[in-house]
Amino acid sequence: MAWAVLFLNAFVILLSARLRYADAGLPYAFPIPIAPDAWWWFIAGSGVLAVVSLVRGVRQLRSGPDAHQESNGPGATGSQNPCPSPEHGCEQRSRGAHRLRSDSRAPDTREKRMALIELLAVPAFLLYEWAALPPYEWRPTDWMAIGFLLLWIGAGFWRDRGAWRDWGLTHERFGRAANLLVIPTAVMLAVPLLVGHFVTGGEGDPGRLAVALATYPLWAFLQLLVFQVFVVRRLKVLGASSASIVLVAAGTFTLVHWPNGVVMAACFGGALVWTTVYLRAPNLYAVALSMGLAAGMFHNTLPRKELLHNLRTGPIYVERLLDAERLEREDAALPLIPLDAGL
Hints:
This protein is mainly alpha-helical. The chain is 68% helix and 0% strand. The relative contact order is 0.13.
């Protein structure tokens, strides 16, 4: 089921980008050069994988633990409450059936179904972004659509309210998470710094870098609320393995930055580390600090225009490249005027 979410994200982006830029004649909507006819192979492949994964997941939901819950316990009967006592942290069905369970309890079929519905907010956003969202000026209907998607995600957070410890929003496990992140974060800081120094000759702006390192952890924290707390916790409810959660969460975070290839590669590598640490030691503050420092260094030491394309992603990335290519064609079509024409 978890993989269905990732494949569906890829299918939505590939199909929407192909249809939106079918007449462009340029492969800018793909991070690497690719023949136009090969698009459909990627689209068909991601679509088939999404359908197969979703069908398998639905079958697992129908034959989920609720169907076997009554017979698994010793001496269980159909009329017995599967919650042995309040000390075990179980909630009454009338109060807690709509909430995500804590990590110590197995989710039921209804919780899995709700987790899947909430996760579909991500491909819904990607579909609207690539199929209908204007790259420059938003219309009132666009604000309404984005607001609806934010409410969709917000409803998931509201259903999961009160689980601050499971979210990683307490001081617990901060030290363990920080220890796990020391070496990876040092590498993430050193690589762009060294690459940027050799590429640009060390002509960066120290003041701008200092401001980015101080402020970007807040933006990282907001992103992690979606891609760690929201996505990872629901993948866990769906019963995905740790390896699947890491790959699907990292892949989802990467696809949101499509089709900026350099940014996507950096996001995927970083997300593998941050998701792994979040699973082992859930503390959002430590992960946000690592992500903020790494992203601030990445954004402000590497060539923003030549290499990072000013950090643009989504349709605006494609539109900017198409505009630049269109200007080049127009300039090439202009007649050459001799320098001494006015003499």
